Automatic annotation (TrEMBL):
Residues 68-124 form the Beta-galactosidase galactose-binding domain. Keywords: Glycosidase, Hydrolase. GO terms for molecular function: hydrolase activity, hydrolyzing O-glycosyl compounds. InterPro entries: BetaGal_gal-bd (IPR048913), Galactose-bd-like_sf (IPR008979), Glycoside_Hdrlase_35 (IPR001944). It holds the Pfam family BetaGal_gal-bd. One of its GO terms (biological process) is carbohydrate metabolic process. This is Beta-galactosidase. It comes from the Eukaryota. It comes from Acrobeloides nanus.
């Protein structure tokens, strides 16, 4: 999490304010950049992965461990409200059909499901997860009711 500090005109500036290391190695000559997460950009990313036969295929469950982008498709019949079940995933962001539906972090909560409204669902759907930590999961599930994970 970036450290925020106030500058002289009262606005907040964020950023790293100390040396940055990766696995105890000091990083040099690096820069931080934003990621375009608009609906159009996410749709384009998902389409390029789904239409590219060279894309890395999912590994066997239990062997994944690195952060990454996970893209897949599912069908829905009937089309109705649903909930993404984040159990088995670690920490990240969920997109369905290009719509940003929020962050998941099941061990921190406050919930383990994310609401996917009926207007965002189609007969064939694309799901994209930006997994920030890594997981042993390579499938997603959608359920009919919300869950806090503390029932």
């Amino acid at each position: 999490m970036p450290i925020l500090q106030s500058n002289n005109n009262g606005t907040m500036e964020g950023g790293l304010h100390d040396k940055v290391a990766l696995e105890n190695t000091l990083l040099q000559n690096w820069y931080a950049c934003g990621i375009n997460l608009t609906k159009a950009a996410v749709d384009s990313l998902a389409t390029s992965f789904l239409n590219n036969p060279e894309v890395i295929q999912p590994e066997v469950a239990g062997t994944l461990s690195a952060p990454g982008v996970y893209i897949g498709q599912f069908t829905s019949n009937p089309i109705q409200d649903t909930f993404f079940n984040s159990t088995g995933w670690t920490k990240g962001q969920l997109f369905v059909n290009g719509y940003n539906l929020g962050r998941y972090w099941p061990v921190a909560g406050p919930q383990t499901t994310l609401y996917v409204p009926k207007p965002y669902i189609q007969e064939t759907n694309t799901v994209l997860l930006i997994e920030l930590v890594g997981t042993t999961q390579n499938t997603v599930s959608f359920i009919d009711t919300p869950s806090t994970g503390f029932e």
